[in-house]
Fold this sequence. Notes:
Distance between the termini: 112 Å
Shape: rod-shaped
Number of strands: 2
Oligomer: single chain
Radius of gyration: 36 Å
Strand content: under 5%
Amino acid sequence: MFKQLRKANQNDYLLITATLILLVVFNLSLLSYVQGQQKAAERDQAQALATGFSRTLKGEIKNALTLSTTLKELVLASDGKVDNFSTVAKYLLAENTAASNLQLAPKGKVTEIYPLKGNEAARSTF
């Protein structure tokens, strides 16, 4: 009878040990899966932020190029001298937020700047 009890206890211990091992393996697998999902979510979020920043930057560059091209055409059409530059610059800046000021610098020398307030240092090259 004691032999049977001892045999039954050994089988129970083996069953309990196997169950514990399976639980540990399952928990480790679940932990690995959850961490993988978190990393994927972080990667997706970083990708979305990078894409959004890229689109914003592209728009700002496009605005700046449009502004520069418009100003270039204006300067070329008026042979380097733009009458009412402040008025023209004010409207151009209102429509294109990519720049905070506009300067005319034919041959590399600043001749006009709008707005002058806050940009006085550029005026020293007049």
